[in-house]
């Protein structure tokens, strides 16, 4: 079985082609990078529609297969930015209708988890999923990925990006902050906000920006911002790990690239005798392969949708999705 997956929830338009043995035949992604400021949804959607034919053609060229070999078209219908989702859905619907292929709806958060599980050979992990738009600690229980902690306001990646923007650094800000934090040597007190199992980053962001304007050294602020935010994640992840007693800690999402975060979470895992499994970078960020792989899992359980009913779902929550394939494991 072969599925073409289309990712289009935010900054990236991607096409992945994956088979049911977990071979990634193609994973071609094009990221919209704003010249100034953050991601403008309409500008990102314009980028997606203009680049779509090229990305699609390149994916087929790389995979060395044709549309005849494809058993289904998977698309990320949410959560994400409306204009971006609609652009991806339009491409997927057109392909499914024209080539008479089943259309498979995929939840973007589920896809981040499934690709990481498949690539890292993880069966039943505690998941820490941190990206530009999501911050979620989750684990499988009773048919779904249940949320054991999430952000009450902005995502951690977004917090880093906005702080970086205020400091005059280019988008995305996460990698700049990681680099500058290595030169920081003084911890500046910032609000550490954990409420029950949830985290909040908006007060932390406001305080860090205020300190920046007060003239505190940028390197020290990057260091302090990382230490504070990552410690909050570690606290919640550690409690979830202890409560769920999972034996694996899986890290996914764009912020998974951060070495300091990896090192802190690997210690949390070690303390609880869990194996730490950070997803490799090409699968940490948004990509088409993760949608294709989750499409394979869905198609095997007949989870397809009529084109007329394939509405986008900008606020589609992870814990509202049934996961019938969970016990199947990785190929
Ligand atoms: P995603 O939304 O999953 O594609 O992830 C994008 C987010 O990851 C952005 O907010 C980036 O700033 C963040 N990011 C990427 N690399 C790093 C890094 N090395 N450290 C921290 N954040 C990062
Ligand atoms: Mg993402």
Question: What features would you describe in this structure?
Answer:
With 331 residues, the protein is α/β, with parallel strands linked by helices. The chain folds into two domains: 2-108 and 285-320, ATPase, nucleotide binding domain (Nucleotidyltransferase, domain 5); 114-282, 2-Layer Sandwich (Nucleotidyltransferase, domain 5), CATH 3.30.420.40. It has ten helices and twelve strands. It has helices at residues 41-63, 82-99, 108-120, 156-166, 174-181, 202-213, 218-244, 259-271, 281-284, 288-300; strands spanning 2-7, 12-19, 24-31, 72-78, 103-107, 126-130, 135-141, 144-150, 194-195, 198-199, 248-252, 275-278. A five-stranded mixed sheet has the order 3-2-1-4-5, with helices on both faces. It has a five-stranded mixed sheet with strand order 8-7-6-11-12, with helices on both faces. Strand 7 (135-141) and strand 8 form a beta hairpin. The protein is globular and about 60 Å long. The chain starts with a strand and ends in a 31-residue tail after the last helix. Adenosine monophosphate (AMP) binds at residues 131-133, 157, 160-161, 172-175, 178, 253-255, 257-258, 285-286.
Secondary-structure map:
Layout: E1 2-7, E2 12-19, E3 24-31, H1 41-63, E4 72-78, H2 82-99, E5 103-107, H3 108-120, E6 126-130, E7 135-141, E8 144-150, H4 156-166, H5 174-181, E9 194-195, E10 198-199, H6 202-213, H7 218-244, E11 248-252, H8 259-271, E12 275-278, H9 281-284, H10 288-300
Helix pairs in contact: 1-2, 3-10, 4-6, 5-7, 6-7, 7-8
Magnesium ion binds at residues 108, 112, 131, 253, 286.
């Amino acid at each position: 079985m072969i599925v073409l997956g289309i990712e289009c929830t935010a900054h990236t338009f991607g096409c992945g082609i994956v088979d049911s043995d977990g071979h990634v035949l193609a994973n071609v992604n094009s990221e919209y990078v704003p010249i100034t400021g953050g991601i403008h949804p309409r500008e990102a959607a314009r980028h997606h529609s203009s680049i779509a034919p090229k990305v699609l053609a390149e994916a087929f060229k790389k995979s060395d297969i044709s549309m005849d070999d494809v058993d289904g078209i998977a698309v990320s219908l949410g959560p994400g930015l409306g204009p971006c989702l609609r652009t991806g859905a339009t491409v997927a619907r057109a392909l499914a209708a024209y080539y008479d292929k089943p259309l498979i709806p995929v939840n973007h958060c589920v896809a981040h988890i499934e690709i990481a599980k498949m690539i890292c050979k993880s069966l039943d992990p505690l998941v820490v999923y941190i990206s530009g738009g999501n911050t979620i600690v989750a684990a499988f229980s009773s048919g779904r990925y249940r949320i054991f902690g999430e952000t009450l306001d902005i995502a951690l990646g977004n917090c880093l990006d906005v702080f970086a923007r205020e400091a005059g650094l280019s988008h995305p800000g996460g990698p700049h902050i990681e680099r500058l934090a290595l030169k920081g040597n003084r911890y500046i007190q910032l609000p550490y906000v954990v409420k029950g199992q949830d985290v909040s980053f908006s007060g932390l962001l406001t305080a860090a920006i205020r300190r920046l304007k007060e003239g505190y050294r940028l390197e020290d602020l990057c260091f302090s911002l990382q230490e504070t935010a990552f410690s909050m994640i570690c606290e919640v992840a550690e409690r979830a790990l202890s409560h769920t007693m999972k034996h694996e800690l899986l890290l996914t999402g764009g912020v998974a690239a951060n070495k300091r975060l990896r090192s802190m979470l690997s210690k949390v895992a070690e303390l609880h005798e869990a194996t730490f499994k950070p997803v490799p970078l090409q699968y940490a960020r948004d990509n088409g392969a993760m949608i294709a792989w989750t499409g394979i899992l869905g198609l095997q359980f007949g989870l397809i949708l009529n084109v007329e009913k394939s509405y986008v779902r900008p606020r589609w929550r992870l814990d509202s999705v049934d996961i019938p394939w969970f016990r199947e494991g990785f190929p």
